[in-house]
Amino acid sequence: MFRILFVCHGNICRSTMAQYVLQDMVDKRGLTSQFAIDSAACRNDEIGSPVDPRTRRMLESQGVPCGNHIARRLRRDEAADWDMVIGMDGENMRDLKRQLPSDAQAKCFKLMEFAGQSRDVADPWYTLDFDETYDDVVAGCQGLLSYLGIK
Questions:
Q1: What per-residue confidence (pLDDT) applies to 109?
Q2: Which residue in 8, 42, 66, 141 is the catalytic one?
Q3: Helix or strand or coil: residue 69?
Q4: Phi, psi (5° rounding) for residue 73?
Q5: How far is CA 94 from CA 6, 42, 78, in A?
Q6: Helix (H, G, I), strand (E, B), or coil: what is residue 146?
Q7: Residue 138: its pLDDT value, please?
Q8: Angstrom distance (rounded) from CA 80 to CA 35
Q9: Average pLDDT for 66-79
Q10: Contact at 8 Å (CB) between 21 and 29?
Q11: What number of other Cβ atoms are within 10 A of residue 64's Cβ?
Q12: Closest C-alpha among 142, 140, 26, 32 to residue 87
């Protein structure tokens, strides 16, 4: 089983988008039972909040089911529960380095690395460009599946 946790600042836009995009890709390949996918926040700003309505609309417009995820904070003690912890930007990666045990650092990746790029996934909370974020998330998730050896 592949256990993947996506993280971003507040866990209402990018990480939830990645969670649902990857889940949809996995489901469409008939691999649901081979994956555990979730998301969490690096910061406390949005803890307890639902998926951002603009994220939900973006996913639904693309035919990607969006569940009822509620923003939650990454816990230090859950690092061992995940094979990969995937951040969206440099700030998330710095937060992961501070928040997770040192032995968990090797399982931390930035999403766009899987798309062959070093840049960040822009935060649509600030850019208001949910289309661009969606395109980046799709490219990153497709690259992640390829990295895992899944076509």
A1: 98
A2: 8
A3: coil
A4: -90, 135
A5: 14, 10, 18
A6: helix
A7: 98
A8: 16
A9: 96
A10: no
A11: 21
A12: 140
Q: Is 14 a catalytic residue?
A: yes
pLDDT the model gives residue 69: 97
- CB of 23 within 8 A of CB of 5? no
Helix axes 53-61, 14-28, angle to 10 degrees: 30
Residue 8 appears among annotated catalytic residues: yes
Q: Give the active site residue among 14, 24, 56, 141.
A: 14
pLDDT band per the 50, 70, 90 thresholds, residue 43: very high
Residues sharing a CB contact under 8 Å with residue 12, sequence separation 6 or more, in sequence order: 46, 49, 50, 51, 52, 55, 71, 125
Decide if pLDDT at 85 tops 90: yes
Q: Is 123 marked active-site?
A: yes
pLDDT at 53 over 90: yes
pTM above 0.90, yes or no: yes
Residue whose entry in the numeric block shows the structure tokens 């799709």: 138
Q: Which parts of the chain are beta strand (E)?
A: 2-8, 35-41, 84-87, 108-110
Of the listed 24, 120, 123, 136, which one is catalytic? 123
Q: Give dist(CA 111, CA 45) in Å, integer.
A: 22
